[in-house]
Amino acid sequence: MAARAHGPNILITGTPGTGKSTLAAELCQRSTLNYVNIGEVAKQGDLYEGWDHIYECQMIDEDRVIDELEEKMGQGGNIVDYHSCEFFPERWFDIVFVLRTDNSILYDRLESRGYTGKKLEDNVQCEIFQTILEEARDSYKEEIVHELFSNTPEELEDNLEKVLSWIEHWKATH
Ligand SMILES: Nc1ncnc2c1ncn2[C@@H]1O[C@H](COP(=O)(O)OP(=O)(O)O)[C@@H](O)[C@H]1O
């Protein structure tokens, strides 16, 4: 099968709570692209390598996740959602969107998700220090990394339109 026969591969990354899964799921509803939630892929295949005692969650086995997705990513047409971005092969993605949310809004979203203490504070700090944005800029060509603000429903709609028009442009030119 030709490379990217099913369309472009898009990475949506950002601190937990910035709205990745909301944006990615809605994009898949409004396009022909396929939603790939890395947390779900790990869960379905039991692709873990141990327990993280600090954050009290499973640690995903990154190498096995990559092996699991390699063929699908080669075909193209995927929207990948994950809160980290440096371990993926750079060649997988045609564009990378990093979602950003103001600290106080993010704090409230994570608190209502049930995050408390260190987990809550560390995630808000991760956003304050632009950790994921820098990780994306270090891992991919600068011109394919785009920051998207995701504080309000209006911004969500703007982001949907931006990404959908990028997908249309990609399809028209490939
Ligand atoms: N642009 C936005 N404006 C308002 N609320 C949003 C926006 N994006 C996401 N949300 C809300 O924030 C919460 C976290 O979003 P979610 O998509 O689960 O984030 P992530 O996948 O990055 O962890 C959800 O309750 C979602 O409805």
From TrEMBL:
Binding residue positions for ATP: G17, G19, K20, S21, T22, R113
EC number(s) from the headed UniProt entry: 2.7.4.3
Residue ranges, annotated region (LID): 112-122
SUPFAM superfamilies: P-loop containing nucleoside triphosphate hydrolases
Compartment(s): Cytoplasm; Nucleus
Record function comment: Broad-specificity nucleoside monophosphate (NMP) kinase that catalyzes the reversible transfer of the terminal phosphate group between nucleoside triphosphates and monophosphates. Has also ATPase activity. Involved in the late cytoplasmic maturation steps of the 40S ribosomal particles, specifically 18S rRNA maturation. While NMP activity is not required for ribosome maturation, ATPase activity is. Associates transiently with small ribosomal subunit protein uS11. ATP hydrolysis breaks the interaction with uS11.
Assigned keywords, A-Z: ATP-binding, Cytoplasm, Kinase, Nucleotide-binding, Nucleus, Ribosome biogenesis, rRNA processing, Transferase
Tree of life domain: Eukaryota
UniProt protein name: Adenylate kinase isoenzyme 6 homolog
Annotated family: Belongs to the adenylate kinase family. AK6 subfamily.
Assembly information from the UniProt record: Monomer and homodimer. Interacts with small ribosomal subunit protein uS11. Not a structural component of 43S pre-ribosomes, but transiently interacts with them by binding to uS11.
